[in-house]
């Protein structure tokens, strides 16, 4: 005998599953908003035979069950539709919610309580106090588990947000942990679909530079022209990066193969953007970022960069396959 399909979840089912208490009424129910906490802010109304919700403070526009999942849980439209049609997916959704609740407060505390030696380490890599505050960079001093499933290791913490919702946590692991346990320099803790670091900037800028790490992306963003967005999506294929760019001119500061929509741009010096910054300084980094932003799509990167740097007073020098872009006569070239 064929099994009956589960009925789709409706708004009231989702609110009940999330533990949101509502005062009953025939056509209107009222309760505390789960996002902004406004007393009696959440209003759920029966309209045209379906329940819709609003919050007077943070969601004045009417929304249905799909809108609720996107607003409350940070899902995409497609993910919300899948949950609505398959109630079993709600369990995974609640696991993700428990993950966020366990980490969100810690992320803020880690950012406030960063040890001085970690701050000095980041300062040396160009990640100053203003950037650390902007991106909520912190330090987790002790390893622990979340909900018996997600392992959070020690190290420098880089939260990744989808809007205001915590979507992932990237951790730059301690050297002694790597030596003892093995594995890579970075650990990623996530409870759902992968989200690009600093993806919000992609919406309003015509050119995007994909970077090898979150530190590279935030350092580049601090020195980039207004028209250049800088983002990072770890372990992404070239096709995923191209799709994330959404038709914008897309550049990559690391090897990318098999995707004509992505231009690979060579660094003048160093193995990544942070290493280039440490070797050549902020001014050279700004010059390179401007050069790759204004380059004609498909143009030879080397020729374009050399011409721009000379025009703007730099003394570029070829060293093997690298271009060293510094002002040899200026002690302030690292400003």
Number of helices: 12
Order of helices and strands: HEEEEHHHHHEEEEEHEEHEHEEHHHEE
Strand elements, count: 16
Give the C-alpha Rg.
24 Å
Q: Provide the residue-averaged pLDDT.
A: 81
SSE-based structural type: alpha+beta
Strand content: 15-25%
Distance between the termini: 74 Å
Major sheet summary line: 4 strands, antiparallel
In spatial order, strands of the major sheet run: 1-2-3-4
Low-confidence stretches: 1-6, 327-335
Q: Can you tell me the overall shape?
A: globular
Share in helix: 25-40%
- Integer tally of domains: 3
Can you walk through the features of this model?
The chain is globular, with a radius of gyration of 24 Å. It starts with 10 loop residues before the first helix and ends in a 9-residue tail after the last strand. It has helices at residues 11-17, 65-73, 77-85, 89-112, 116-124, 129-135, 175-181, 214-223, 238-245, 273-280, 282-294, 301-311; strands at 28-31, 42-47, 50-55, 59-63, 138-140, 144-146, 150-152, 155-162, 165-173, 186-190, 207-210, 228-231, 249-252, 262-264, 315-319, 322-326. The protein has 3 domains: 11-87, Zinc finger, CHC2-typedomain (DNA Primase, Chain A, Alpha-Beta Complex), CATH 3.90.580; 103-190, DNA primase DNAg catalytic core, N-terminal domain, CATH 3.90.980; 199-326, no CATH class. Helix content is 36%, strand content 23%. Strands 1-2-3-4 form a 4-stranded antiparallel sheet, with helices on one face. It is an alpha+beta fold and 335 residues long.
């Amino acid at each position: 005998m064929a099994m009956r399909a589960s009925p789709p979840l409706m708004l009231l089912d989702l609110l009940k599953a999330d533990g949101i208490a509502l005062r009953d009424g025939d056509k209107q129910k009222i309760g505390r908003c789960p996002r902004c906490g406004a007393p009696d802010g959440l209003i759920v109304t029966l309209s045209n035979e379906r329940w819709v919700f609003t919050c007077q403070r943070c969601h004045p526009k009417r929304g249905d069950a799909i809108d609720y999942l996107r607003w409350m849980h940070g899902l995409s439209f497609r993910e919300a539709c899948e949950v609505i049609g398959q109630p079993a997916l709600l369990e995974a959704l609640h696991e993700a919610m428990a993950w966020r609740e366990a980490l969100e407060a810690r992320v803020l505390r880690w950012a406030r309580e960063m040890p001085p030696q970690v701050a000095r380490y980041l300062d040396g890599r160009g990640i100053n106090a203003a950037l650390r505050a902007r991106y909520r960079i912190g330090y987790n001093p002790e390893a622990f588990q979340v909900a018996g499933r997600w392992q959070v290791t020690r190290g420098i913490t880089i939260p990744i947000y989808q809007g205001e919702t915590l979507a992932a946590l990237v951790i730059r692991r301690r050297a002694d942990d790597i030596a003892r346990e093995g594995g890579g320099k970075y650990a990623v803790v996530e409870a759902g679909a992968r989200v690009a670091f600093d993806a919000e900037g992609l919406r309003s800028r015509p050119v995007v530079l994909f970077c090898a790490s979150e530190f590279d992306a935030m350092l580049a963003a601090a020195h980039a022209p207004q028209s250049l967005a800088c983002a990072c999506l770890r372990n992404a294929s070239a096709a995923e990066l191209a799709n994330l760019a959404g038709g914008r001119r897309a550049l990559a500061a690391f090897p990318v193969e098999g995707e004509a929509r992505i231009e690979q741009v060579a660094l003048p010096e160093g193995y990544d953007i942070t290493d280039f910054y440490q070797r050549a300084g902020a001014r050279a980094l700004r010059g390179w970022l401007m050069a790759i932003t204004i380059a004609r799509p498909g143009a030879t990167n080397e020729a374009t960069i050399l011409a721009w740097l000379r025009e703007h007073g730099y003394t570029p020098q070829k060293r093997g396959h690298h271009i060293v872009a510094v002002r040899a006569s200026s002690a302030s070239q690292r400003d």
